[in-house]
Amino acid sequence: MRITNPLSYRLDLPQQYPDSEPSAPLVLDSPHSGTAYPPDFAAAVDFGALRTAEDTWVDDLWGDAIEMGVPMIAAAFPRAYIDANRSPDEIDELLLDQAWPDAINASPKVKLGKGLIWRMLDDGTPLYNRKLTVDEVRHRIDACWKPYHAALGQVLDAAHKKFGKVWHINCHSMPSVAGAYATDRPGLVHPDFVLGDRDGSTSDPAFREFIAAWLRQRGYDVTVNDPYKGVELVRAFGRPEEGRHSLQIEINRKLYMDEVSLRPSENYGRLKADLRELTAALITWTRAQTA
């Protein structure tokens, strides 16, 4: 069953289960795969450049999980319009035509121009040739960010209520080489996968270690909490002391696509099949943790 909020998200729930409940205590979300560009975006760069900010194909790569009984929510809005993986107080005042009236978190991401509303692309290209109004930013928060977080929270709550525990994978992709303004380590050559649980604060480490071992057995290069530890979504929903485990997974785009054309490569099918098998292994593993 698919539930949509045209401005915010697409939520796919298992059709075959009563009340669309999950078959295992596992939930996926893809916050950066949105491709519906709102007309009020009014960015100053062309559409092709804007699309480089997307986690292209990530929702599809993990999409087999839905028919396996695992709920998945994916953003409809693009990451460059508003980033669901940022806190709503990560406001970049350099973008605004007046002072933000509420508290501001000048996080490292904001300083990179990658706060709640992006100021620039990974290569440093400015996204706007104008200043944004406070009302514009608040509209994006209310129409996109809040419904996405609310919907994900409801799905996680439903799984937790049914099973007593829940494991959440926050699905992302990363370029093969970090952009000049993407992170605080520009030019870094990325591994195949990066697993982030904010140094064990958002999940029992057994979750990441199970996935890391599974991927390494299939020949993938995997790092843990380096260079990405996870950001807002795992922080907001990961509370391991309550049986709520959230893990961010970054996949290197070189594994499945041409990073210039954004088209799937010949390896796309292999990676998608591996992620399907990983999902099946996680269904079994998470069920065993609640037995």
UniProtKB/TrEMBL annotation:
InterPro entries: N-FG_amidohydro. It comes from the Bacteria. SUPFAM superfamilies: Zn-dependent exopeptidases (SSF53187). Residues 12-31 are annotated as: Disordered. This is N-formylglutamate amidohydrolase. It comes from Achromobacter insolitus. The lineage of its organism: Bacteria, Pseudomonadati, Pseudomonadota, Betaproteobacteria, Burkholderiales.
